[in-house]
Design brief:
12 helices; 13 strands
Length: 366
């Protein structure tokens, strides 16, 4: 155990946002441990022509400004997602806006896309060009923008040449009107514009995959519309899911009623159910990334068996520290071996069998 493993309890003596900022500064200063062990071959998976050494990634929200992607890769993540980044810098919502639900091992945030803007993120991603490791970028719109599509196009134009994949965030609950962009007609227009912007930025040869991050708080009709839009546009993947505005009755923390998006263990069941539903609705034809409440190898495995080729986490890291990553990978490899799977790809969707009418070409293969 490194000294860094003791950091989470010490950091929790500070308010959550200053604690997070201190963590970023420590990581940027090189004060994080590095994983020395190679990942088991069974944990590797190839999606969109990119080889992920393991399927466990850092979700967006931790490294909003692309300050420490290499430090996080060094902890053992298979990939890291920076952002959410908006075209212009913005301060986000008034403080306090980040709350620890300690009794529930959860967080509530209403940060509101606080970030330094595209220019800062682009500069940092350009500076790491050529380094190993897969780093994605999550893009959003400015709160006061009058044309959302223009903002997202700006994000693609700036970061497509630098990111290994792009995620379109239309599902944060903390930007007014953002979730309205999940309606089918708007999505089709948005995705079409972003695909054209991507081609203009990098051409047609091996462009970064374009993914859509959706909310867990969707009606049955909304879920069906998103699946239809995804299939009709040919978007490269879905990230399932963002934080939730729901508040389960099981929450014990007195801060549970704070306005904002809830993450952590209470999000695991609904986000995993949505993951399985989107696999069924898309017929397994679109790669899925599972995120929400993962804090163990068993939970990562459940996401994979529900249809995820990749899994992301963030909240659990704030409570458990970096040792959690190695623990998840070790347990995940053991679970794959127990069930006779030679690799991650063999286990994807094992709990969500597809009917002949929904089966289609697996676009995520190889």
């Amino acid at each position: 155990m490194s000294l860094y493993d003791f950091a989470p309890p010490l950091l929790r003596l500070l308010p959550p946002e200053p604690a997070h900022r201190l963590t970023i500064r420590a990581l940027a200063a090189g004060l994080a441990p590095r994983s020395a062990s190679l990942d088991p071959a069974s944990l590797a998976i190839t999606l969109w022509g990119r080889r992920f050494p393991n399927p466990i990634g850092l979700a967006a929200g931790f490294d909003k400004n692309a300050e420490v992607p290499d430090a996080m890769l060094g902890l053992g993540f298979g990939f890291v997602e920076c952002g959410t980044v908006t075209p212009r810098p913005q301060p986000g919502n008034p403080r306090p806006r980040l709350f620890r639900l300690t009794e529930d091992r959860a967080l509530v945030n209403r940060l509101g896309f606080n970030n330094e803007g595209l220019d800062a993120a682009r500069g940092r991603l350009a500076a790491r060009r050529g380094r190993p490791g897969l780093v994605g970028a999550n893009i959003g719109k400015n709160k006061d923008s009058t044309d959302a599509i223009v903002d997202y196009v700006a994000g693609v134009a700036a970061l497509a040449p630098l990111a290994d994949y792009l995620v379109v965030n239309v599902s944060s609950p903390n930007t007014p009107g953002l979730r309205d962009l999940q309606r089918k007609g708007i999505l089709i227009d948005l995705i079409g514009a972003l695909m054209r912007a991507r081609e203009a930025a990098v051409g047609k040869a091996d462009p970064p995959p374009l993914l859509l991050k959706i909310a867990p708080d969707l009606t049955e009709a909304e879920r069906a519309e998103i699946a239809e839009a995804a299939l009709e546009t040919g978007i490269d993947g879905l990230v399932i899911s963002n934080t939730t505005v729901a508040r389960p009755s099981s929450l014990r923390s007195p801060l549970a009623r704070e306005t904002g998006g809830l993450s952590g263990p209470p999000l695991f069941a609904p986000s995993t159910a949505l993951l399985a539903e989107m696999r069924r609705l898309t017929g397994g034809r679109i790669p899925l990334v599972g995120v929400g409440g993962v804090s163990s190898g068993a939970e990562a495995y459940a996401k994979i068996r529900a249809g995820a080729g990749l899994v992301q986490l963030y909240t659990a890291l704030a409570y458990e520290g970096p040792g959690l990553i190695a623990s998840i990978k070790r347990d995940l490899a053991a679970l794959l071996a127990r069930d006779g799977f030679s690799g991650i790809a063999d286990a994807v969707g094992a709990d969500v069998p597809l009917t002949p009418s929904t089966l289609g070409s697996q676009r995520h293969a190889g």
